[in-house]
Amino acid sequence: MRIGCGIDVHPLIKGEKLILGGIHIPSEVGAKGHSDADCLTHAIVDALLGAGGLGDIGQHFPPSEEKYRGISSLIFLEEVQNLLDSQGFRISNVDASIALEKPKLASYVSKMCESISIHLAIQKDQVNIKATTFEGLGMIGRGEGVMVYAVALIQPND
Ligand code: MG
After folding, report:
1. Residues with CB under 5 A from ligand 1 (ion)
2. Cα separation of 70 and 22, whole Å?
């Protein structure tokens, strides 16, 4: 078995959408980034690439490339799953913590797990997502950004 971790941060500003795990979360502010700025998906992609010893998201999907502008990050999940499969690995499980001051995410977690599992071609119970706040502390606490930490375990295909 192999394990990988991933971390991602995006600034939150007015006039942008907040997309997490491919799910649109109604919010006064949204995440700024080159693609759809899906912080959760980006952290999971990095965790999976890390587990596979395959570098990082910036190498595989460079923000300098015009084709990734505004794109749904869910396609990154599909590409990474295909890459792992071609290297002889399958995904055991993915776990992630979202640090966001508001809005509350509890009612969206199940949808996020489903969305991510579909794009990784795994079962919903292989994906776990948690939400937390920073209790008002620092950039997350002031609502200036969203941060996600993810871990992923992979194992050889039999
Ligand atoms: Mg990102």
Report:
1. 8, 42
2. 13
